[in-house]
Amino acid sequence: MEFKLTPEQKDFQELARQFARQEIEPIAAQIDEDSIIPSGLNEKLAGAGFVGMLIPKQYGGTETGMLRYVLAFEELNYPVCQCLEALGNNIVGRAIALTGNEEQKQRYLPPLAQGSVMGSYAFTEPATGSDRKALVTTARLDGDHWVLNGIKRFHSGGHLAGPGIIFANVDGTNTTAFLVDKLGAGYRSSKPFELMMGRGLETVDTRFENVRVPGNNVLGTVGGGYEILFSITAEGRLSLSSIAVALAQAAFDESALFLKERLASNREDASLQTTKHVLADMLTRIVPARVTAYRIAWLTDMGEDTRMTSAIIKLFSSTMAREVADMAMDIHGLSGLVKGSKIERIYRQAKQFDLTEGSSEVQRTIVAGSVLMQ
Ligand SMILES: Cc1cc2nc3c(=O)[nH]c(=O)nc-3n(C[C@H](O)[C@H](O)[C@H](O)COP(=O)(O)OP(=O)(O)OC[C@H]3O[C@@H](n4cnc5c(N)ncnc54)[C@H](O)[C@@H]3O)c2cc1C
User: Fold this and answer.
1) Whose CB among 46, 101, 201, 332 lies 3.0–4.6 Å from 82's, allowing a Cys bridge?
2) What pLDDT is attached to residue 270?
3) Residue 70 and residue 290: Cα distance in Å, rounded?
4) Which pTM value belongs to this model?
């Protein structure tokens, strides 16, 4: 593996860095304050080519590959802002590009790449997000349509118009992925959850009451839903790992700046060896997480099966982000507790990685399961 980024990769990383500085950093704190994503941000993200990174060029995407996607994702999340809902179109688009039929690709990929619709996926239900055998949403064939009934919980973007990949059971246990045009008849969404960390990105409950879905909207095959869920969550885990690295890097940079300012004003505590060593401990966690995420992204681009390794990096980077956020809070002392400060925002957001895209326990089950199957 070539460890040096190519000029194209560096240019794309720099493009994302400049976009984050100019378009996201100035509004990050306000979005966290009033939980509103300003209109136009999704269009700007799409205009810069970030919404279709994992969508093939022939369907209007930028087809960057996973490594450039991860490089951009890290830079775009550095301002610590839960406002990049349009980037979710990448994961949904990739699932349709990899498992959809030609009609589905022609129909759904161009609007997803343009950011004119919001893609989403929904597996989690009120009873569980971890135990796949506990899924109770059903789908039954009625003539040339499927009829879906059930409730989905924590459905990110479930209230926004566009294609949703909805997991439901056919004939009891055949878990199947359906492409559902959200907001149609029988489709209801709750008001967004007030979540501790994410203000901006909205997550809702969605209720399916005899939602009719055209017969041709099965994604992949009937009973083949888990293969699609595994590939969606494998990429989701890599995305979350790069967000975790971005947040931890932001916590480190804020802490280094804070200590430098204190050292400059000869603050005794800042010169304490122990305080300085915390910076080393933070970086000793961030760098391995970043390099590993890049390697798994590169392996994905090489066509390798990265479902187990993406669980490893998700587990590692979840713990890393929480520990680094904690260290940053310690360095900042009281000023870190000020509501809306960058460190406070980071601290609140750092816990999400233990739960979203499959909890840390589930990652351990995936890794141990893969090892014992070998
Ligand atoms: C901001 C946010 C956005 C989300 N977006 C989406 C989305 O778009 N689509 C979607 O489908 N879901 C989404 N989720 C849901 C998320 O994927 C689930 O929360 C996650 O999978 C955990 O499921 P749960 O919350 O139902 O916990 P449960 O499954 O009820 O588990 C509760 C606790 O028990 C532990 N546990 C469960 N089973 C085991 C086991 N076998 N061994 C050991 N411990 C176990 C878990 O680790 C967890 O700590 C989102 C969640 C959040 C917070």
Assistant:
1) 201
2) 60
3) 10
4) 0.94
Mutate to test the pocket of ligand 1, among 35, 128, 154 (most ligand atoms within 8 A of CB): 154
pLDDT of 196 reads: 87
> CA-to-CA distance for 201 and 32, rounded, in angstroms?
10
Q: What percent of the chain has pLDDT over 70?
A: 97
Mean pLDDT, rounded, of the chain: 93
* Structural domains for the chain: 7-114 (1.10.540.10), 120-223 (2.40.110.10), 226-372 (1.20.140.10)
Q: What is the pLDDT of residue 78?
A: 97
Residue nearest to atom 52 of ligand 1 (CA): 356
Best residue among 233, 314, 359, 360 to mutate for probing ligand 1, ranked by most atoms within 8 Å of CB = 359
CB 327 within 8 A of CB 282: yes
Q: Which of 155, 178, 355, 366 to mutate to test the pocket of ligand 1 (most atoms within 8 A of CB)?
A: 355
For residue 8, count other CB atoms closer than 10 A to its CB.
11
Q: Which segments within 263-316 are labelled E, that is strand?
A: none
85, pLDDT greater than 90? no
Q: Give the tens place of pLDDT for each residue, 24-47.
A: 999 999 999 888 888 899 999 999
Residues across the chain: 374
pLDDT level of residue 269 (50, 70, 90 thresholds) = low
**Largest Cα–Cα distance in the chain?**
78
- Predicted pLDDT at 251: 98
Which ligand 1 atom is nearest residue 128's CA? Answer: 26
Catalytic residues: 357
End-to-end C-alpha distance for the chain, whole angstroms: 25
Q: Using only C-alpha atoms, what is the Rg of the chain?
A: 21
Ligand 1 neighbours (beta carbon < 6 A): 120-124, 128-131, 154-156, 195, 198, 203, 352, 355-359, 361-362, 365
